[in-house]
Write a structure and sequence with these properties.
The protein is mostly helical. The chain is built from three helices and no strands. The chain is elongated, with a radius of gyration of 18 Å.
Length: about 110
């Protein structure tokens, strides 16, 4: 049971770190600054989901049912977060880019993509 909780805590901490590193790109006092698209950070979060899926497989092989169930729940939760974070992240990026354009940054009509 302790291993299952420890794995879930590590996964939540990794997701929080990924989110904070993406959100930090938007923290600026420069009105012409805009953040980065969420794509690379969503790939990092998907990596956490894959790691949880692999941990559930290892738990199933070792007949540790608590770990298997906990990790499958984490995979479902992470995938749910990813599906909503993609839309919200792209919207935040486009809004930030538009605000930077309105403050005088010479911009094209669409935000740049990496």
């Amino acid at each position: 049971m302790a291993i299952a909780v420890a794995l879930a805590v590590v996964e939540v901490a990794a997701l929080a770190l990924i989110w904070l590193s993406w959100a930090a790109t938007y923290w600026s006092f420069d009105p012409q600054s805009y953040g980065v698209p969420p794509g690379p950070y969503l790939h990092g979060a998907a990596f956490v989901a894959v790691a949880a899926l692999l941990a559930s497989v290892v738990g199933a092989v070792r007949r540790a049912h608590v770990i298997t169930i906990t990790q499958i729940v984490m995979v479902v939760v992470i995938c749910g977060i990813l599906s909503s974070a993609k839309v919200a992240g792209e919207r935040a990026y486009e809004t930030s880019y538009r605000d930077a354009c309105r403050s005088g940054l010479g911009c094209a009509t669409a935000p740049p993509t990496p």
